[in-house]
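ugh ok fine here u go
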Amino acid sequence: MDAIALLIAASLNAGTLLALAALGLLINERAGIVNLGAEGLMLVAAIAGFATAVHTGSEGLAFAAGMGAGALLAGLFGLLVIWLNTNQYAAGLALSLFGSGFSAFVGLRYTSEKLAPRSHVEIPLLADIPFVGPALFKQHPLVYGAMALTAALAWFLYRSRAGLVLRAVGESPESAHALGYPVRWIRLGAVMAGGSLCGLAGAYVSTVYTPLWVEGMIAGKGWIALALTTFATWRPARILLGAYLFGFVTMLQFYLQGQGVEVASQFLSMLPYLSTIVVLVLISSNAGFIRANMPASLGKPFFPGS
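structure:
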Protein backbone atom coordinates (compact mmCIF):
# COMPACT_ATOMS: atom_id res chain seq x y z
CA MET A 1 0.00 0.00 0.00
CA ASP A 2 2.86 2.36 0.73
CA ALA A 3 4.28 1.71 -2.73
CA ILE A 4 0.90 2.43 -4.34
CA ALA A 5 0.57 5.66 -2.35
CA LEU A 6 3.99 6.74 -3.59
CA LEU A 7 2.97 5.83 -7.16
CA ILE A 8 -0.12 8.03 -6.89
CA ALA A 9 1.92 10.91 -5.44
CA ALA A 10 4.54 10.60 -8.18
CA SER A 11 1.81 10.46 -10.85
CA LEU A 12 0.29 13.71 -9.60
CA ASN A 13 3.72 15.32 -9.59
CA ALA A 14 4.51 14.15 -13.13
CA GLY A 15 1.05 15.08 -14.36
CA THR A 16 1.30 18.61 -12.99
CA LEU A 17 3.98 19.76 -15.40
CA LEU A 18 2.04 18.27 -18.34
CA ALA A 19 -1.16 19.94 -17.13
CA LEU A 20 0.45 23.37 -16.82
CA ALA A 21 1.91 23.22 -20.33
CA ALA A 22 -1.25 21.77 -21.87
CA LEU A 23 -3.47 24.40 -20.24
CA GLY A 24 -1.23 27.06 -21.74
CA LEU A 25 -1.50 25.47 -25.16
CA LEU A 26 -5.27 25.24 -24.70
CA ILE A 27 -5.44 29.03 -24.31
CA ASN A 28 -3.47 29.42 -27.56
CA GLU A 29 -5.66 27.03 -29.48
CA ARG A 30 -8.92 28.43 -28.15
CA ALA A 31 -7.79 31.70 -29.76
CA GLY A 32 -7.04 29.91 -33.05
CA ILE A 33 -3.25 29.67 -32.80
CA VAL A 34 -1.30 26.41 -32.95
CA ASN A 35 2.08 26.58 -31.21
CA LEU A 36 4.29 23.57 -31.96
CA GLY A 37 7.16 25.22 -30.11
CA ALA A 38 6.14 24.09 -26.61
CA GLU A 39 9.18 21.82 -26.31
CA GLY A 40 11.56 24.71 -27.07
CA LEU A 41 9.67 27.10 -24.79
CA MET A 42 9.89 24.66 -21.91
CA LEU A 43 13.60 24.05 -22.45
CA VAL A 44 14.45 27.77 -22.44
CA ALA A 45 12.25 28.31 -19.39
CA ALA A 46 13.87 25.35 -17.67
CA ILE A 47 17.37 26.81 -17.96
CA ALA A 48 16.08 30.30 -17.11
CA GLY A 49 14.39 28.99 -13.96
CA PHE A 50 17.32 26.80 -12.96
CA ALA A 51 19.89 29.57 -13.45
CA THR A 52 17.74 31.97 -11.42
CA ALA A 53 17.39 29.41 -8.63
CA VAL A 54 21.16 28.84 -8.60
CA HIS A 55 21.97 32.54 -8.31
CA THR A 56 19.15 33.66 -6.01
CA GLY A 57 18.12 30.53 -4.14
CA SER A 58 14.49 31.59 -4.61
CA GLU A 59 12.00 29.15 -6.05
CA GLY A 60 9.46 31.91 -6.63
CA LEU A 61 11.92 33.96 -8.68
CA ALA A 62 12.83 30.83 -10.63
CA PHE A 63 9.18 30.30 -11.56
CA ALA A 64 8.86 33.98 -12.50
CA ALA A 65 11.96 33.76 -14.70
CA GLY A 66 10.59 30.67 -16.43
CA MET A 67 7.24 32.33 -17.04
CA GLY A 68 8.94 35.48 -18.34
CA ALA A 69 11.16 33.52 -20.72
CA GLY A 70 8.18 31.54 -21.99
CA ALA A 71 6.05 34.66 -22.48
CA LEU A 72 8.88 36.48 -24.30
CA LEU A 73 9.53 33.67 -26.77
CA ALA A 74 5.80 33.13 -27.26
CA GLY A 75 5.43 36.86 -27.93
CA LEU A 76 8.06 36.69 -30.67
CA PHE A 77 6.28 33.67 -32.11
CA GLY A 78 3.00 35.61 -31.96
CA LEU A 79 4.46 38.57 -33.86
CA LEU A 80 5.59 36.21 -36.61
CA VAL A 81 2.34 34.32 -37.05
CA ILE A 82 -0.23 37.00 -36.16
CA TRP A 83 1.21 40.14 -37.75
CA LEU A 84 3.56 38.74 -40.40
CA ASN A 85 1.23 35.81 -41.16
CA THR A 86 4.00 33.23 -41.33
CA ASN A 87 2.97 29.60 -41.30
CA GLN A 88 2.06 28.64 -37.72
CA TYR A 89 3.32 25.07 -38.00
CA ALA A 90 6.66 26.01 -39.54
CA ALA A 91 7.21 28.85 -37.05
CA GLY A 92 6.37 26.56 -34.13
CA LEU A 93 8.82 23.90 -35.27
CA ALA A 94 11.49 26.59 -35.73
CA LEU A 95 10.82 27.81 -32.18
CA SER A 96 11.18 24.28 -30.85
CA LEU A 97 14.53 23.81 -32.62
CA PHE A 98 15.74 27.23 -31.50
CA GLY A 99 14.79 26.55 -27.89
CA SER A 100 16.61 23.22 -27.93
CA GLY A 101 19.84 24.72 -29.26
CA PHE A 102 19.73 27.94 -27.26
CA SER A 103 19.05 26.19 -23.95
CA ALA A 104 21.90 23.74 -24.59
CA PHE A 105 24.30 26.62 -25.27
CA VAL A 106 23.25 28.73 -22.28
CA GLY A 107 23.13 25.73 -19.98
CA LEU A 108 26.71 24.57 -20.53
CA ARG A 109 27.98 26.19 -17.34
CA TYR A 110 25.07 24.92 -15.25
CA THR A 111 25.39 21.19 -15.92
CA SER A 112 27.39 20.66 -12.71
CA GLU A 113 25.40 23.05 -10.52
CA LYS A 114 23.13 21.80 -7.74
CA LEU A 115 20.23 23.46 -5.99
CA ALA A 116 19.93 23.74 -2.23
CA PRO A 117 17.65 21.07 -0.73
CA ARG A 118 14.00 22.14 -0.59
CA SER A 119 12.07 22.08 2.64
CA HIS A 120 9.58 19.24 2.98
CA VAL A 121 6.03 20.32 2.10
CA GLU A 122 2.91 18.72 3.54
CA ILE A 123 -0.57 19.76 4.64
CA PRO A 124 -0.84 19.51 8.44
CA LEU A 125 -3.14 16.81 9.84
CA LEU A 126 -4.24 15.64 6.37
CA ALA A 127 -0.73 14.43 5.59
CA ASP A 128 -0.90 12.08 8.59
CA ILE A 129 -3.91 10.13 7.27
CA PRO A 130 -2.78 6.60 6.36
CA PHE A 131 -2.38 5.99 2.62
CA VAL A 132 -4.36 9.12 1.61
CA GLY A 133 -1.90 11.49 3.29
CA PRO A 134 1.27 10.30 1.51
CA ALA A 135 -0.64 9.95 -1.77
CA LEU A 136 -2.38 13.34 -1.89
CA PHE A 137 -1.27 15.73 0.82
CA LYS A 138 2.52 15.82 0.62
CA GLN A 139 2.76 17.58 -2.72
CA HIS A 140 4.44 20.77 -3.90
CA PRO A 141 2.02 23.74 -3.74
CA LEU A 142 2.08 24.03 -7.53
CA VAL A 143 0.39 20.62 -7.76
CA TYR A 144 -2.64 22.10 -6.04
CA GLY A 145 -2.12 25.31 -8.01
CA ALA A 146 -2.56 23.36 -11.27
CA MET A 147 -5.90 22.03 -10.00
CA ALA A 148 -7.05 25.52 -9.06
CA LEU A 149 -5.84 26.88 -12.40
CA THR A 150 -7.88 24.25 -14.23
CA ALA A 151 -11.03 25.28 -12.40
CA ALA A 152 -10.29 28.98 -12.97
CA LEU A 153 -9.65 28.47 -16.68
CA ALA A 154 -12.86 26.47 -17.09
CA TRP A 155 -14.80 29.30 -15.41
CA PHE A 156 -13.02 31.88 -17.55
CA LEU A 157 -13.77 30.12 -20.83
CA TYR A 158 -17.39 29.19 -20.18
CA ARG A 159 -18.68 31.67 -17.60
CA SER A 160 -16.98 35.01 -18.33
CA ARG A 161 -17.46 37.53 -21.12
CA ALA A 162 -13.71 37.68 -21.80
CA GLY A 163 -13.65 33.90 -22.22
CA LEU A 164 -16.57 34.07 -24.62
CA VAL A 165 -14.70 36.65 -26.69
CA LEU A 166 -11.57 34.48 -26.70
CA ARG A 167 -13.55 31.48 -27.94
CA ALA A 168 -15.28 33.65 -30.54
CA VAL A 169 -11.89 34.74 -31.88
CA GLY A 170 -10.92 31.08 -32.23
CA GLU A 171 -14.18 30.15 -33.92
CA SER A 172 -14.64 33.10 -36.29
CA PRO A 173 -12.07 35.89 -36.12
CA GLU A 174 -13.80 37.69 -39.01
CA SER A 175 -17.05 37.94 -37.04
CA ALA A 176 -15.22 39.06 -33.90
CA HIS A 177 -13.37 41.71 -35.94
CA ALA A 178 -16.67 42.91 -37.45
CA LEU A 179 -18.01 43.39 -33.92
CA GLY A 180 -15.05 45.64 -33.11
CA TYR A 181 -12.83 43.28 -31.11
CA PRO A 182 -9.04 43.61 -31.62
CA VAL A 183 -8.53 40.06 -32.87
CA ARG A 184 -4.78 40.30 -33.32
CA TRP A 185 -4.14 41.71 -29.87
CA ILE A 186 -6.43 39.13 -28.27
CA ARG A 187 -4.55 36.37 -30.05
CA LEU A 188 -1.20 37.82 -29.00
CA GLY A 189 -2.34 38.02 -25.38
CA ALA A 190 -3.52 34.39 -25.53
CA VAL A 191 -0.23 33.25 -27.06
CA MET A 192 1.82 35.03 -24.39
CA ALA A 193 -0.38 33.72 -21.58
CA GLY A 194 0.00 30.23 -22.98
CA GLY A 195 3.75 30.71 -23.30
CA SER A 196 4.02 31.82 -19.68
CA LEU A 197 2.28 28.62 -18.52
CA CYS A 198 4.60 26.51 -20.69
CA GLY A 199 7.45 28.46 -19.11
CA LEU A 200 6.13 27.73 -15.63
CA ALA A 201 6.02 24.03 -16.53
CA GLY A 202 9.61 24.18 -17.77
CA ALA A 203 10.84 25.91 -14.62
CA TYR A 204 8.95 23.35 -12.52
CA VAL A 205 10.83 20.55 -14.28
CA SER A 206 14.30 21.96 -13.60
CA THR A 207 13.71 23.26 -10.06
CA VAL A 208 11.23 20.80 -8.51
CA TYR A 209 10.55 17.72 -10.62
CA THR A 210 14.22 16.95 -11.33
CA PRO A 211 16.18 19.76 -9.62
CA LEU A 212 19.12 19.94 -12.00
CA TRP A 213 19.97 21.01 -15.53
CA VAL A 214 20.65 18.50 -18.31
CA GLU A 215 20.56 19.28 -22.02
CA GLY A 216 17.23 18.22 -23.53
CA MET A 217 15.76 17.42 -20.11
CA ILE A 218 12.16 18.13 -21.21
CA ALA A 219 12.48 14.91 -23.23
CA GLY A 220 9.33 15.20 -25.32
CA LYS A 221 7.00 16.42 -22.58
CA GLY A 222 6.16 19.49 -24.66
CA TRP A 223 4.92 17.24 -27.46
CA ILE A 224 2.88 15.16 -25.03
CA ALA A 225 1.31 18.38 -23.68
CA LEU A 226 0.46 19.37 -27.25
CA ALA A 227 -1.19 15.99 -27.82
CA LEU A 228 -3.11 16.40 -24.56
CA THR A 229 -5.11 19.32 -25.92
CA THR A 230 -6.49 17.11 -28.68
CA PHE A 231 -6.88 14.16 -26.32
CA ALA A 232 -8.97 16.40 -24.03
CA THR A 233 -10.98 17.88 -26.91
CA TRP A 234 -9.95 21.37 -25.81
CA ARG A 235 -11.55 21.22 -22.35
CA PRO A 236 -9.59 22.14 -19.18
CA ALA A 237 -10.95 19.44 -16.85
CA ARG A 238 -10.19 16.71 -19.37
CA ILE A 239 -6.67 18.08 -19.76
CA LEU A 240 -6.07 17.70 -16.03
CA LEU A 241 -7.38 14.14 -16.02
CA GLY A 242 -5.37 13.29 -19.14
CA ALA A 243 -2.22 14.78 -17.62
CA TYR A 244 -2.61 12.59 -14.54
CA LEU A 245 -3.18 9.57 -16.76
CA PHE A 246 0.04 10.22 -18.68
CA GLY A 247 1.81 10.98 -15.40
CA PHE A 248 0.68 7.59 -14.11
CA VAL A 249 1.96 5.83 -17.23
CA THR A 250 5.29 7.64 -16.86
CA MET A 251 5.71 6.63 -13.22
CA LEU A 252 4.43 3.09 -13.77
CA GLN A 253 7.77 2.05 -15.23
CA PHE A 254 9.55 2.87 -11.97
CA TYR A 255 6.88 1.13 -9.90
CA LEU A 256 7.12 -2.05 -11.98
CA GLN A 257 10.89 -2.03 -11.77
CA GLY A 258 10.68 -1.59 -8.00
CA GLN A 259 8.29 -4.55 -7.78
CA GLY A 260 10.76 -6.71 -9.67
CA VAL A 261 8.66 -7.11 -12.82
CA GLU A 262 10.95 -8.44 -15.53
CA VAL A 263 10.19 -6.16 -18.45
CA ALA A 264 12.81 -4.53 -20.65
CA SER A 265 13.56 -1.05 -19.34
CA GLN A 266 13.53 0.30 -22.90
CA PHE A 267 9.93 -0.84 -23.33
CA LEU A 268 8.89 0.74 -20.04
CA SER A 269 10.52 4.02 -21.09
CA MET A 270 8.48 3.91 -24.30
CA LEU A 271 5.15 3.64 -22.47
CA PRO A 272 4.29 7.39 -22.16
CA TYR A 273 5.01 8.05 -25.83
CA LEU A 274 3.40 4.82 -27.00
CA SER A 275 0.24 5.64 -25.05
CA THR A 276 0.24 9.13 -26.60
CA ILE A 277 0.31 7.65 -30.10
CA VAL A 278 -2.40 5.11 -29.30
CA VAL A 279 -4.71 7.76 -27.84
CA LEU A 280 -4.24 10.10 -30.80
CA VAL A 281 -4.91 7.28 -33.27
CA LEU A 282 -8.12 6.36 -31.46
CA ILE A 283 -9.32 9.96 -31.31
CA SER A 284 -8.34 10.72 -34.90
CA SER A 285 -10.36 7.74 -36.13
CA ASN A 286 -13.49 9.82 -35.50
CA ALA A 287 -12.97 12.91 -37.65
CA GLY A 288 -16.48 14.19 -36.99
CA PHE A 289 -15.89 14.19 -33.24
CA ILE A 290 -12.69 16.21 -33.70
CA ARG A 291 -14.39 18.76 -35.97
CA ALA A 292 -17.27 19.17 -33.53
CA ASN A 293 -14.93 20.13 -30.68
CA MET A 294 -11.98 21.82 -32.40
CA PRO A 295 -11.95 25.64 -32.71
CA ALA A 296 -13.08 26.31 -36.29
CA SER A 297 -10.24 28.73 -37.13
CA LEU A 298 -7.44 26.74 -35.48
CA GLY A 299 -4.21 27.20 -37.44
CA LYS A 300 -5.79 29.54 -39.97
CA PRO A 301 -4.30 33.02 -40.54
CA PHE A 302 -6.45 36.12 -40.12
CA PHE A 303 -6.18 39.13 -42.41
CA PRO A 304 -8.11 42.17 -41.10
CA GLY A 305 -10.20 43.79 -43.77
CA SER A 306 -9.88 40.89 -46.21
